[in-house]
Amino acid sequence: MPGTIDAKLAELGIAVPAAAAPIANYIGYNIVGSMVVVSGQIPLVDGKIAVTGKVGAGVSIEQAQAAARICFVNLLAQLKAATGGDLDRVKRVVRLGGFIAAGPDFTQHALVMNGASDMAVAVFGDKGRHARTTIGVPSLPGDAAVEVEGMFEIA
User: Fold this and answer.
1) Would you give the distance in Å from CA 154 to the centre of its chain?
2) Which region holds residue 126: left if phi is over 0, alpha if psi is between -120 and 50, else beta?
3) DSSP output for the chain
4) Computed over its alpha carbons, how large is the radius of gyration of the chain?
5) CA-wise closest residue to 16 among 109, 87, 68, 67
6) Among 37, 43, 128, 149, who pairs with 124 as Cys (CB 3.0-4.6 Å)?
7) Would you state the pLDDT for residue 23?
């Protein structure tokens, strides 16, 4: 029987994929006490990066917001693995960190990261409201346009 969060995901039309394997020397998530720290997730869909390039220089804000949403879904995949498949164990989205690949003149990083933040609230309701950092970077792994990391409190 699906839990409350699984039902919400179904209502939103979101299918959470299997957690992606790390591409370097790190782990997908780390549990410390009641906290789960999830490594940065890029917008992988079926093993391919869905949105590549620089935001504001070939990648629109809307495309980048969609990439941030995909990143959040991939965070959920890691979180699902960390909770033994039970996303109802999530007590709070504590923090999201966003990395936006963009040129030096781009200044709308917060709008891009809203793609992930809005999804956190859509999925978890008030438990999805979180602290956040969003920064611009010159490049990301695989030329991904966006990467999002997260910290979650679990029961």
Assistant:
1) 17
2) alpha
3) ---HHHHHHHHHT----PPPPPSSSS-SEEEETTEEEEEEE--EETTEESSBSEETBEE-HHHHHHHHHHHHHHHHHHHHHHTTT-GGGEEEEEEEEEEEEB-TT---HHHHHHHHHHHHHHHHGGGG--EEEEEEES--GGGBSEEEEEEEEE-
4) 15
5) 87
6) 128
7) 86
4-154: what fold? 60s Ribosomal Protein L30; Chain: A; (3.30.1330)
Cα torsion for 145, 18, 40, 84, to the nearest 10°? 160
Q: What is the pTM of this model?
A: 0.96
Residue 151 burial (10 A CB sphere; 0-12, 13-18, 19+): middle
pLDDT at 2: 64
Q: What are phi and psi of 104, to 5 degrees?
A: -65, -20
- Residue 64, judged by CB atoms within 10 A of its CB (0-12, 13-18, 19+), counts as buried
Owner of token pair 């998530």: 29
Point out the residues of the chain with pLDDT beneath 50. none
